[in-house]
């Protein structure tokens, strides 16, 4: 069986493992609504189903003695492999936030069984999934109800049709496999958007379930809207999942709304974290306290 050289993972060399204490600045990418509506990713090299089918075919060709079945695995078979990578040691544990590229690596699509440690690992050539963010291309729509200078409501739409910052495939392919600890031929299978399901404006009472950030309270309309028109960013906390099938992880995104024209804005992403169950419950309690919406529990329902 072939031996594979394992690429080293630089400790926070422009890369942040989500869960690290500090995170770098800027960037982001496009999105889809959290309504489950289907979205065509900006970059799609190979489908997830295709890789699962290929793994199943390989499983059928292998001698039965080499197959180790795992009912919890998305793949049909696992195989002992000397080159199998161990998460947290030879390969980066997911999710991984890459501020310079504005994406989060969320999933490895091909697993294996390490012959050295007898544990489930990651194939060094596995395809992987990247998650970007909506409205980072600077074309987010501002919706104003009432007079522009004295509005009743101001909305910033972070829905599916809001474009992500366009990244060339070569950028992801050149940097991410090395930083994740994968081989250079490990391709990004899909570039999917982050789906906003709940949002809050820090230090204000404005919060709501959905993907449209709204200034509704008198203080927010008077202070935040005036400052926004003068060129100051609006701080927002966003909560949701990647807009893809079977995405259990809930993410917290600290970001800013930046004015680009009189009627458009850009989302500037500063920090991305995966929430654990306790943190999810804390956000759920805030959601139920700050809004009258009865769908808070559905946002955090697994």
Short description:
With 302 residues, this protein is an alpha+beta fold.
Tell me about this structure.
With 302 residues, the protein is α+β, with helices and mostly antiparallel strands. It folds into 2 domains: 16-132 and 166-191, no CATH class; 140-164 and 193-299, no CATH class. The protein is built from 5 helices and 16 strands. The chain has helices at 48-61, 169-180, 218-229, 277-290, 296-299; strands at residues 16-17, 67-68, 78-81, 96-98, 103-108, 111-114, 120-122, 128-132, 140-146, 151-157, 188-200, 207-209, 212-215, 234-242, 251-261, 264-274. The strands form 2 sheets. Strands 1, 4, 5, 8, 9, 10, 11, 12, 13, 14, 15 and 16 form a 12-stranded mixed β-sheet that branches. A hairpin with a 2-residue loop joins β15 and β16.
């Amino acid at each position: 069986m072939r031996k594979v050289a394992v690429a080293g993972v630089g400790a926070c060399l422009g890369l942040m493992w989500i869960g690290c204490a500090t995170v770098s600045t800027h960037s982001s990418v496009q999105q889809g609504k959290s309504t489950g509506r289907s979205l065509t990713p900006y970059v799609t090299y190979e489908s997830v189903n295709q890789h699962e089918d290929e793994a199943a075919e390989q499983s059928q060709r292998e001698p039965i003695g080499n197959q180790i079945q795992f009912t919890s695995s998305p793949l049909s078979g696992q195989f002992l492999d000397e080159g199998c990578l161990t998460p947290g040691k030879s390969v980066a544990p997911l999710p991984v936030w890459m501020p310079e590229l504005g994406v989060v690596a969320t999933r490895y699509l091909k697993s294996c069984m390490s012959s050295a440690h007898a544990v489930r690992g990651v194939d060094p050539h596995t395809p992987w999934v990247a998650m970007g963010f909506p409205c980072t291309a600077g074309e987010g729509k501002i919706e104003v109800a009432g007079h522009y200078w004295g509005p009743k409501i101001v909305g910033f739409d972070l829905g599916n049709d809001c474009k992500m910052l366009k990244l060339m495939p070569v950028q992801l392919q050149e940097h991410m496999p090395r930083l994740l600890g994968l081989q250079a031929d490990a391709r990004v299978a899909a570039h999917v958007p982050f789906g906003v399901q709940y949002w809050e404006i820090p230090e204000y009472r404005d919060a709501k379930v959905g993907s449209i950030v709204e200034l509704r309270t008198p203080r927010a309309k008077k202070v935040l809207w005036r400052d926004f028109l003068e060129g100051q960013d609006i701080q927002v906390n966003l909560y949701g999942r990647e807009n893809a099938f079977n995405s259990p992880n809930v993410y917290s995104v600290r970001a800013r709304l930046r004015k680009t024209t009189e009627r458009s804005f850009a989302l500037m992403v500063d920090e991305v974290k995966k929430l654990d169950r306790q943190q999810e419950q804390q956000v759920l309690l805030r959601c139920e306290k700050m809004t009258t919406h009865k769908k808070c529990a559905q946002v955090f329902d697994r």
